[in-house]
Specification:
With 58 residues, the protein is mainly β. The chain contains 1 helix and 5 strands. It binds zinc ion (ZN).
């Protein structure tokens, strides 16, 4: 399991969405749309699953 990450469109920084996912399952999952609060911009960013990736720390 890992954490779904997105790239902040304002700063280009990688930010965690707080969503836990399995990398293989996430890649195969249907396209979905989500909204994540960005602590850098202090705003919500909207993103699609295809723009996101799973970060596994192990
Ligand atoms: Zn941001």
């Amino acid at each position: 399991m890992g954490i779904v990450m997105i790239k902040c469109p304002q700063t280009g920084r990688e930010i965690p969405t707080g969503i836990k996912a399995d990398r293989e399952r996430f890649r195969c999952s249907a396209v979905f749309f989500a909204r994540t609060y960005c602590s850098i911009c202090q705003a919500n960013h909207e993103w699609f699953a295809k723009e996101a990736w799973v970060y596994e720390s192990s």
